[in-house]
Write a structure and sequence with these properties.
This protein is α+β, with helices and mostly antiparallel strands. It has helices spanning 2-9, 15-20, 43-58, 67-78, 89-97, 106-118, 205-219, and strands at residues 12-13, 25-32, 122-126, 135-138, 145-149, 152-156, 163-167, 170-174, 179-180, 192-199, 227-234, 237-241. It is 33% helix and 26% strand.
Length: 242
């Protein structure tokens, strides 16, 4: 457990990000003891429940008018991104729900389903591939971001002022919660992971904690000795550990 707390102890959100959205909160969860490729059989049921939840939410309201999605569209505009072209992860998943959410691997499927069910953007990455602690900042434009373009591996760079998650080796997720780097992506071999839950009003602290609780409960069934730690980062708060 101490190792997981240590992994989160250096995590930070730079003041410039809170300057854009003082209501922003990041809840980080570090998990270890996952059995590679394991599944307790609930991933498929969770995804189906998430698809049904999304269809119900969109039955009477366009996706861009859902309060949680609208808040993220506003946040994207604040740093110069065009939300109709680069949709945050929650909106992207909600838009795919009608035709079926993607099936990737048990860990990814699980957090995608929880994200849609609670309407909270949520990302997951392989903790063993991190170099240093997660940091959310406004980019200089020099940070490397490894991705795939036209079927080839390439290194791109964020735009100046773009909100990005980074570690010591480069960008791990661009445009707050838009696209993750390949270097830290979850795979069938992942045994330790870090999950980042992004929240803006109207998501309350209680709703954010409930989302984390559900995620951790599902993760705990993916190995006989799964352990976890979490840390909440918010404006004016040095961060709390649980």
């Amino acid at each position: 457990m101490d190792a997981l707390h240590d992994a989160l102890s250096g995590a930070q959100v730079e003041p410039a990000v809170f300057g854009l959205r003082p209501d922003y909160r990041a809840l980080l969860i570090a998990v270890d003891g996952l059995v590679p490729g394991s599944s307790d059989g609930t991933s498929a049921a969770l995804i189906e429940a998430a698809e049904a939840s999304a269809r119900a939410a969109l039955a009477a309201t366009p996706v861009e008018e859902l309060p949680h999605v609208a808040a993220w569209r506003e946040a994207y505009r604040a740093f110069g991104a065009k939300p109709q072209r680069t949709r945050n992860s929650l909106e992207a998943l909600l838009r795919r729900a009608a035709g079926g959410l993607p099936r990737v691997n048990p860990l990814t499927d699980l957090y995608n389903a929880v994200s849609v069910l609670h309407q909270v953007p949520l990302g997951g990455e392989d903790l063993s591939r991190y170099r240093g602690a997660p940091r959310l900042l406004r980019a200089t434009g020099a940070e490397p971001f490894d991705t795939i373009a036209d079927g080839a591996e390439v290194v791109e760079h964020p735009e100046v002022g773009e909100v990005v998650w980074c570690d010591d080796a480069g960008v791990t997720c661009r445009r707050w919660d838009w696209r993750q780097a390949r270097r830290t992506q979850l795979t069938e071999h992942t045994t330790a992971a870090v999950f980042i839950l992004d929240a803006l009003d109207p998501t309350s602290d209680d709703e954010l904690a409930a989302t984390a609780d559900e995620l951790v409960a599902h993760l705990a069934r993916l190995g006989p000795s799964v352990t976890s730690a979490r840390r909440l980062l918010r404006a004016g708060d040095a961060g709390r550990h649980d």
